[in-house]
Write a structure and sequence with these properties.
Elements lengths: L1 H14 L10 H11 L2 H12 L1 H12 L9 H13 L4 E4 L5 E5 L7 E7 L13 E3 L2 E3 L7 H17 L6 E7 L9 H6 L9 E5 L6 E6 L1 E10 L3 E2 L9 H19 L6 E10 L5 E2 L2 E10 L2 H25 L7 E10 L9 H11 L6 E5 L4 H5 L4 E4 L4 E3 L7 E3 L3 H16 L7
Parallel strand pairs: 3-6, 3-7, 7-16, 8-15
Antiparallel strand pairs: 1-2, 2-6, 4-5, 5-18, 9-13, 9-14, 10-12, 11-13, 17-18
Helix pairs in contact: 1-2, 1-3, 2-10, 3-6, 3-12, 4-6, 6-12, 8-9, 10-12
């Protein structure tokens, strides 16, 4: 079966039409075809298939190391140990907690970032024990994005065992802070200094082979807290009520936001969490909510954000106008998330290579938009693409998440081919 799979890939690569059917230009289709048929890459593909059980064992191991938001250290430590064991020239953890393994290129002068994110969405205390039924692995975070980390590790091991050298340096990275209120803090740190940041970025996050994320979906997030003195629901009746103010504010926001999101660039809004108060018979001393707004357009995102802020102030004013006694309420509008949006260049070599290398596996890639670590470099104009982790994953961000190893090795092979194409295989004649 393994020999058949490799033979099929070689046949596909060597007979792949140099046409627009792949979505890539002729130049990059030819490059991917020649690279996939080279002895070194063919050997690496075989190694990837032989690593299948090894990859599953490390998927289980890493999944069972909890990595709640802002608490990725333990998983990152083990990820770094594996990078060193598998042949990275040097491994370090930066100030933000990103774990980076450098594999030096023959020429240097250019660096390709290749990573997955270390964190999961699940809070501290979540049971992350992996259970297996048949060919299905169950555990929170088993796919998103622990499998992405395993893809990164497997590519490094296959390149080392196949003796593949690249022209450019490669950073194999476990990134912190991708999920939720992590707010892409790991990637923002990596790209804070353009002089030391990678020249291109390949992220492993998401499903199968087809979808290639090249556009960043921007978002802003707020935690809004209405505050007052609080008191007994009967004895202190007449005080301004933070819960009432928040309710008014949400209503005002939705009335305006609904109109804004009916037409124009796709834009969304959501009140995701609410809280506050101490008892059913007590006027709360505070009420809070967390709100997410997203848009494909930076201008539309800025517009709905402004509408949101105005609605919060209006809700506050209206409730304060009704108070019969006591001090006025206040509101705190804390911006807790800011993910940049951006449009990737379809003609960039990295995007063209992503399409061409995907076609090697008989899949026509589709270019799409999402919110991933790639948002940061995309917004800065740096070539970036997010590719899938492979297999079949379901229930992401839920306690019932599971992953099935159906052709999982193909995602590793595609990732390897794309990485080597972008970094340049040393000694390969153009």
């Amino acid at each position: 079966m393994r020999s058949f799979t490799i033979a099929l890939l070689i046949t596909t690569a060597t007979t792949m039409p140099l046409t627009a059917q792949t979505g890539a230009s002729t130049e990059y289709v030819r490059e991917a075809r020649d690279l996939a048929a080279s002895p070194a890459i063919t050997n690496a593909f075989r190694i990837v298939e032989e690593l299948d059980e090894w990859a599953l064992q490390h998927l289980i191991e890493l999944t069972e190391i909890p990595a709640p938001p802002f608490m990725e250290e333990d998983r990152g430590r083990r990820f770094g140990e594996l990078l060193a064991e598998l042949g990275a020239d040097s491994v370090w953890t930066d100030e933000e907690g990103n774990v980076i393994g450098l594999r030096r290129g023959r020429r240097g002068g250019r660096t390709i970032g290749f990573g997955g994110h270390l964190d999961t969405v699940f809070p501290e205390g979540t049971d992350v024990t992996v259970t297996q039924r048949g060919d299905t692995l169950f555990a929170p975070g088993i796919g998103d994005d622990t499998r992405g980390l395993v893809v990164v590790l497997a590519v490094l091991r296959a390149m080392e065992e196949a003796g593949i050298e690249t022209d450019a340096d490669v950073h194999f990275v476990g990134v912190v802070g991708e999920e939720g209120l992590g707010d892409l803090r790991g990637m923002k740190h990596i790209y804070r200094n353009p002089a030391t940041a990678p020249d291109a970025w390949i992220e492993v996050d998401g499903g199968g082979l087809q979808r290639l994320v090249v556009d960043g979906l921007g978002s802003v997030r707020y935690r809004v807290t209405f505050k007052g003195p609080g008191g007994h629901s009967w004895g202190a009746f007449g005080l301004a009520n933070p819960a009432h103010a928040m309710s008014r504010a949400v209503r005002r926001f939705q009335d305006a936001a609904d109109t804004l999101t009916r037409s124009g660039p796709r834009t969304s809004y959501n009140v995701g969490r609410i809280g506050g108060g101490t008892s059913v018979n007590a006027i709360p001393f505070e009420s809070w909510m967390e709100v997410d707004m997203r848009s494909v357009s930076p201008e539309s995102l800025a517009r709905i954000e402004q509408v949101f802020l105005e609605a919060m102030d209006r809700g506050l004013r209206e409730e304060n106008a009704l108070r019969r006694s006591g001090p006025a309420l206040t509101v705190d509008k804390a911006r807790i998330g800011d993910r940049p949006s951006g449009e990737g260049d379809r003609d960039a070599p990295l995007v063209q290579r992503a399409l061409a290398t995907t076609a090697v596996f008989g899949v026509q890639g589709t270019l799409g938009r999402s919110s991933t670590d790639s948002n940061v470099p995309i917004a800065l104009g740096v070539p970036a693409v997010t590719i899938g982790r492979g297999g079949m994953g379901f229930g992401g961000h839920s306690p019932g998440e599971y992953w099935i190893n159906v052709g999982g090795h193909l995602a590793i092979q595609r990732a390897l081919l794309l990485l080597v194409a972008e970094a340049g295989m040393a000694g390969m004649i153009p």
